[in-house]
Amino acid sequence: MSAMRSGTRDLHERIEQRIRPAEALGDIDSYRRLLERYAAYYRCFEEIVRRDRFIVREFGSERLEKSKWLRNDLRELNEAVPVVGDQRSSAEELTLPDFPTRSHLIGGMYVLEGATLGGQVLLRRYGPPRGLPEGAAVRFFEGYRDATGMMWQAFSQTACRLVEAEAEIAAAVDSARATFSSFGDWVVPNQLVTQQ
Ligand code: HEM
């Protein structure tokens, strides 16, 4: 697990800068957009994970609820503050990295599971955006709430048990890097990245 952390630290920093949470959680429309992008990515990724019954059994199916949380958050947000005008985004294609082996898949899970760790920090620091009813549309960023630390520990233990050999660890790190990059590109497309 420390190989995953050290092998992706630069990309975690980059994704934080790219998402610019102060702005992304700063107003309703940016937050709506962020939730939409997250929801699409998590839905596709969870579909891939769900195909591997062994992985679902080992890690627990409760880890595959996040796209549902995101959909519910979006519904609550749209009910509280309906979309004004036509804000449809152009039809872009979402392509996830390939996950040819279980080690690759676990590398991807590391990234999307790890995102629950920063959520509460983010909410405390920047959000939720003003204009939302108390507690609405923040389920995803609450992660596993009080169980977040415990869920992460359990994830790490299972990941370590299943990804052991050197070549497997290398595959998981490669895949985690590819997932960080593809997630960052999807959530904040290049044309929206401006120099800071
Ligand atoms: C946008 C702003 C973000 C902030 C402020 C943030 C913050 C954090 C914090 C504080 C931790 C450490 C938590 C702890 O050790 O208890 C963490 C860990 C982590 N975050 Fe983020 N995060 C952000 C975005 C993301 C995103 C978008 C992803 C993935 C898509 C991500 C993936 C991870 C992973 C994999 C870890 C675990 C690292 C490890 O211990 O191995 N983070 N984040």
Topology at a glance:
Blueprint: H1 2-19, H2 21-24, H3 28-50, H4 53-59, H5 66-80, H6 102-126, H7 139-142, H8 148-162, H9 166-187
Helix pairs in contact: 1-9, 3-5, 6-8, 6-9
Protoporphyrin IX containing FE is lined by residues 4-5, 12, 15-16, 19, 21, 110-112, 114-115, 117-118, 121-122, 183.
Gist of the model:
With 196 residues, this protein is mostly helical. It has a single domain (2-83, 100-191), classed as Up-down Bundle (Heme Oxygenase, Chain A), CATH 1.20.910.10. The chain is 68% helix and 0% strand.
CATH 2nd-level architecture: Up-down Bundle
State the shape: globular
CATH class: Mainly Alpha
Largest sheet: none
Look at the structure and give the mean pLDDT.
Answer: 94
Word description of this protein:
- This protein is mostly helical and 196 residues long.
- The protein has a single domain, classed as Heme oxygenase-like (Heme Oxygenase, Chain A, Up-down Bundle).
- Helix content is 68%, strand content 0%.
- It is built from 9 helices and no strands.
- It has helices at 2-19, 21-24, 28-50, 53-59, 66-80, 102-126, 139-142, 148-162, 166-187.
- α3 (28-50) runs antiparallel to α5.
- The longest helix has 25 residues, at 102-126.
- The chain is globular and about 50 Å long.
- It starts with a helix and ends in a 9-residue tail after the last helix.
- Protoporphyrin IX containing FE binds next to α1 and α6.
- GO terms for molecular function: heme oxygenase (decyclizing) activity.
- This is Heme oxygenase.
- Pfam families: Heme_oxygenase.
